[in-house]
Amino acid sequence: MNMNRASISVTGEGHYVVEGELDMNSVPQLWRSANGFFNTPATSSLVFDLQAVTRSDSSGLALLIEWMALARQNNQTIHFRNLPVQMWEIAKVSDLVDVIPLEK
């Protein structure tokens, strides 16, 4: 995988693994490739596992916020697993820790 690229893999119905670097170069492509996940009426609950994210800047956090909005528009619940420390720190500084739905 190109180091500037990120990808999403389907691991089960409504379950996805995000991997790679989330930055301003990779996030637009990732957003487009995940868009279809939010248009599936049969999938009412989405879980994104971020354990394989190697690096993230504020663009990665913005992507999660955008996915939350898409899920809400489609009456879906969304949760994020294994939020990387880098994203957690950005969320804390941005006062978004209580906004992001983290799965325990």
Task: Give your account of this protein's structure.
The protein is α/β, with parallel strands linked by helices and 104 residues long. It has one domain (6-93): 2-Layer Sandwich (Transcription Regulator spoIIAA). Helix content is 32%, strand content 31%. The protein has helices at 27-34, 58-73, 85-93, and strands at residues 6-12, 15-22, 45-56, 77-81. Strands 1-2-3-4 form a 4-stranded mixed β-sheet, covered by helices on one side. The termini are far apart. The mean pLDDT is 89.
What does the secondary structure layout of this molecule look like, with pairings?
Blueprint: E1 6-12, E2 15-22, H1 27-34, E3 45-56, H2 58-73, E4 77-81, H3 85-93
Parallel strand pairs: 2-3, 3-4
Antiparallel strand pairs: 1-2
